[in-house]
Amino acid sequence: MFSVFHTADWHLGQSLCGFDRHYEHAGFLSWLLDNIESRRPDVLLIAGDVFDSINPSAAAQKSWYEFLAESIRRHPALQVVVTAGNHDAAARLEAPSDLMAALRIHVVGTVQRNETDETDLQRMIVPLRDDRNQLRAVIAAVPFLRPADVPVVTDADDPYRAGMEQLYRELAAAARSVVTGESLAAGIPIIGTGHLHVQGGSETRDSERRLIVGGAEAMRAHLFPAEFTYVALGHLHRRQSFRGGTIRYSGSPIPLSFAETGYEHGVLHLKFDGDSLTDCDTLLVPRAVEMLSVPQSETALPLEDVVQELEALPADTTTDEQHKSFLEVRVRDDGPDPFRRARIEAALADKPVRLASIKLIADTTAASRGVQLDLFLHSAGLNAIEPEDIFVQAHQDRFGAEPDDAVLAAFREIVQQEAQPA
What is this structure's pTM? Predict the structure, then answer.
């Protein structure tokens, strides 16, 4: 039996609307260390986006290296395979790879060329051996691929997609050759990785950075050759699977936006018998900090109703700042209101929450009026319309009424300032 922890999209160093997430990430890493110690996986596989930024903070990097050191201390037989995602600084992530290799931590951040200017496949092929030097698995460790990383396929309608398919075929063949070169009594798993968007995968609003490269946004699942026993993916933050569960996104370990609060976040625990995937369990990560939305539905409510709901939240002035829930307030957009935030903050004065976002939701009836502005512009023509006329019509469409005198005066002041020579 060979077991794997598959995880991805940690985004260490991420902030939510200006609030630091270090406490939550620390809780996740502590939980993961406990599970590594108790469940003793053979390998921890991290499929990209270790960090949230190409310039991670010193604190984020410290958390990363402390985690790696502690994981090996608690489970000395553990091997770790890490690939870079689109958020990571690939070269920086793999810079200490020679040092890490001594600890059986394998990091692949970039795709490199050999002396004949061909893709260096061998540096992405990671044979995993036990303490008796017996081959247990082979990993095709593929990071996030940019157009320059893939082979050039001439006469292809989509060179990036075709190049990626060729690279995966070459890697599968290279991994297979490692297996056939060994005297094995039974088969072993060949595991591929990727950090990309598979067609049919469910995206998360306001979370994943779109990967539009080479004219392609999403790749078909048949990109991955049949030689792969399993494909461990990163990039999409919702846990999901394809091709009978042999291709999976682990999802992110914590909710990275309010759009992810309904997800179950976890780490996948995979078990292989020979070259067959026999079991996949989801180890759910406890949520260290709650993320609340008021109201809970996407229904647009006026400010008065929202304030009443906020005032009804339980009061508690003793909760530590790092334990306070993150709060997104959803309010119907009834027009400019300079006192909106002040009223919301007053309602939350004694509540154990951190106001992360005030989301204005357009009234559906107002949104349906937007076509009137288009008709207005089309019928009159831009050259024949004064800026104030466009502003008044847009305000009418958005809020269902013309702007009041104060708003009009502010608009005219802006127009006058713009008209003055620089």
Answer: 0.84
